[in-house]
Amino acid sequence: MDRDKKTTSGDSVHQSPESHPSRDSPRGSAPRTPTGSRLRPPSVYSSRTSPSAGPTPVRSPPMFTNRAASQRSGNASAGHQSPALPTPQTDTESRQTSTTPIYSESTILISSTISSTKIQLSDIQPIEPKILERIKSLEISIKQHRDSEAQLLKNISALNVEIEAAREEHDQLMDVGQQELAKLSPEVDEFQNQSLQNSATIHDYWAALRQLEEQANEKDREINDLKMRLAELQESGEQILQDRNEDEGPAIEELQMSKVQIELEILQQEQEREATQVKITEYNDTYGIHAIQTLRKALARSQERADELMQALNSKTSPSEMIDEKKVDELTLLFEKVMHRRLGAIKAGFDEEINAAAKLECERSHEVDVAHQRYLHTNQVSEETEQRASQAEYNLLNEKKTLAELQATSLRLQAQLGQNA
């Protein structure tokens, strides 16, 4: 029977660590043992072992301790009474509460636990590494939860301080508000008295409002009359424009066509004038005074050269040859006179053509001006009609503006009356 109990307690060792009440319960749920028998958490023992060597479930003290804890939890679930293990503490708490070696205390505790539960060392099975890692992670989580609880307590204390400060500030604000309310009470009474006094003027405002409404109605009637007059003016203006288009439309179109034709002819005359001016420039460059003077200078140089040659050849020439040179000079002078005469005739012909073109241009410009005056006269009548219509429209807009101002004044007075009421 005891063997069956041992087997049952051994099977409970392999259960999940989450099923242990000592692990899931909050801090302080398990009874504490005396200070000398407290154990360090498995994380402390694991820090003493070599990382490369890995866990040694059989020889490591934490493994026996956790095995014993699991055995006690299994016995507790089976109905056996066993002493509860102490709550794991941090390394700092362990150093503050214990001064004796930990390994010897753990050995004594394990021995006492084994003797009380009648478990033999051969029955103890090593803890699996996964379970050990899970136990370590749970211990770390417990430590984190305890740290979080401490931090929450600090935060709660700070919030209580802030709440107290806010409460004091609220009380101060309430006191200030009560004082300000006491100061404003006379002003409120004065405002009430003023409102009572203003209520006496409401009837006057209503009378003024009725008068403004009557004026607005009168302005509406005037605006309607102006609209009718404007419509009549627009109809008369349209009729005038239609009559003008019927009577003077063909003449205006003919004048416009003649004006375009005259402009084309003027443009053509300008082009011909430019071509004539180019020809005159070319003739002046070829047969002008400057060219003749250049020829004269060249002839003078040739004459000087000929004189020099004649002086050199005087001894060898006869009087008959001298007579031939004189004939050459006479022929040269005759040629120059003929060229001057021809150039003058050509220039006079061009001047006559230019003067005729200018005269024709003046005549056509006069015709265009006459047609333009007629066109301006016809436009003047239409502009006068449009001006009269514009003046009527302007007067209508002024009346509308005055009416809008009166309506705005009426609305403002109504708003003031509503506020005073």
Q: Which features characterize this protein?
A:
disordered N terminus; Helix Hairpins; flat; coiled coil; mainly alpha; 0% strand; 82% helix; 421 residues; single chain
Detail the topology: elements first, then pairings.
Blueprint: H1 2-11, H2 21-24, H3 42-48, H4 61-78, H5 91-97, H6 102-117, H7 129-198, H8 202-287, H9 289-313, H10 319-420
Coiled coil: 149-176, 209-312
Biased composition (Polar residues): 9-19, 44-53, 67-80, 87-101
Keywords: Coiled coil
The gross shape turns out to be: flat
Instruction: Give the uncertain stretches in residue-range form.
Output: 1-106
Distance N terminus to C terminus?
Answer: 101 Å
Mean pLDDT comes to 67
Please tally the helical runs, counting DSSP H or I stretches of 4 or more residues: 10
Output the radius of gyration: 66 Å
What is the chain-wise order of helices and strands?
HHHHHHHHHH
The second-level CATH architecture of the domain at 202-289 and 342-420 is Orthogonal Bundle
- CATH top level assignment of the domain at 202-289 and 342-420: Mainly Alpha
How big a fraction of the residues is strand? under 5%
Number of strands: 0
Secondary-structure class: mainly alpha
Q: Percent of residues in helical segments?
A: over 70%
The main β sheet shows up as: none
